[in-house]
Design a protein that fits this description.
The chain has 547 residues and is an all-alpha fold. The protein contains 31 helices and no strands. The protein has four domains: 190 residues, Serine Threonine Protein Phosphatase 5, Tetratricopeptide repeat (Alpha Horseshoe), CATH 1.25.40.10; 117 residues, Alpha Horseshoe (Serine Threonine Protein Phosphatase 5, Tetratricopeptide repeat), CATH 1.25.40; 87 residues, Alpha Horseshoe (Serine Threonine Protein Phosphatase 5, Tetratricopeptide repeat); 49 residues, no CATH class.
Length: 547
Amino acid sequence: MPLRSLPRSRRFLPRHRPATVAFLGVLLCFLLAPIAGGQEADAGPDPFDEALAKIQRNELSAAVADLERLRAEGDRRAAAALGAVYVRLDRHADALEVLEPLIEEHDDPGVLYNAGRAAVGVGDFDRGLDMLRRSAELAPGSPAVRELGVLLGRGGDYVGAFPYLRRWSTLHPEDEEARLLAAVAAVQLERAPDAEAMLSDLAQDDPGVQLLWGQTLLLKGEPYAALGYLEPLVADAPEAMQADVRRASARAHMMAGESNKAIDVLEGHAEGNPQLTLQLAQAHYQNGDVQQALGLLQPFAERIAATPDRSSGGSLAGSIVLEHGRLLLTDDRPDEALPYLRMATEIIPREKLAWQSLGQALAASGDNDGARQAIARFQQLADDEGRQAPNQVDVERNDPTAKQLRLAFEKLTAGEDEEALRILEQESVLNPEDARIPLLASRVLLSLQRPGEALRAVELSLELRPTTDGLYQRGAVLMSLQRLDEAEESLRAALESNPEHSPTLNDLAVLLMNQNRRDEARTLLARALEIWPEDPVAKQNLDRLDG
């Protein structure tokens, strides 16, 4: 798989920035560290040390000649250093030829690092990533961590890149390029607090930093604050940043209800760019000019409709056909709107506006049964969204993991256990220290009848942060494994932590009932009903006990 270029919307970042002196020192020490099994020092000067000195003086051709001679004499250290120099000289195939035999002998993190970079250099991206990951596992603070984050981020894999970039930036806050890339990944993942943390110590007059601040403030729902960063950039930003700046600035104006200003920002700059064209059409629609909006979107919508695999365009394609269908519906052309709205529900099936618009178009076309089905789906999605507490949106802006936990829980309650687990596994990569993730994962795994994995997950949660819910969940998992003594111990520990924890009162009562310890079970159920008189589980268990 070749290394993918950065998508157009990300190109405001430079491909290479000058690394700081501190980072160059770390890298040099890592690359040139002595390798186990090297030669013992002779009485005279060590030729290998002399070759290293030439590398440090950037006399690379002379160093290569020395190292090739030493390698031919069987010096393993020379082979490792020669591979590193070949990588610096972009002789990636030569580097792989030298380094691969060393990897077969011993997994050295420095050798793996250079071999990984060489593999990427010859186009073997997956193999290069594998070697870099092995290097990072062996040396968690090494430059392999940085390289992984940069490569994955440049390829658009922000979920994979962010943990590496965050780890490296925490260890090396002086590495501005890594911090900037970490902020880009955080913005793309809609993790505003992480983006703020990465941006806070960077040069605030840097246009890339200012754009990222604007995008971060938009994530936080603060359009006027965002415009403070974005408006000066519309005129002054480098050409490579213009599309990103105008998109963010137009979005801020529209969030603020200023569609005229959004049109001014985008007019003359959207041609050929589907994202900017969609924004411009939405701004014209918000401004009351439906025909202008339709004219802008029609070529893009027709192109998507003619594509055999419509889903290949992703959410952007879905948004374009949805907006085009809505515009046709507004223009009293429901029959023409229908195929576009049906496409929208296929490409972005969880977008409630697509189902609502489809229902309206079907009703206007006389298909009342189809309209009822579409509106029922819209209502279901709206109800799912409505389950959030009134301040849930604000909470999730400041705690991105909370949003993913909510989505996973909704999937769990809807019976989509595998999808819930997928969401949690992805979030655990981004936030491995959050105890809430393995705790909910334990519930999902138990629902999937994988109790052994559920136990490991809840144990991890308790290691990260002991909680009443964690102690209760461990007890529930142990009950499913028929390890009843351990389950009772964990449930009693949960009650000691919180004597009014209703799920624990109920589950411990069930455990005691099954052991014919009826009196204490009755006491626990009575306490559960004191806390919540309508508790259906406690009522059912008490009926069983009395029955």
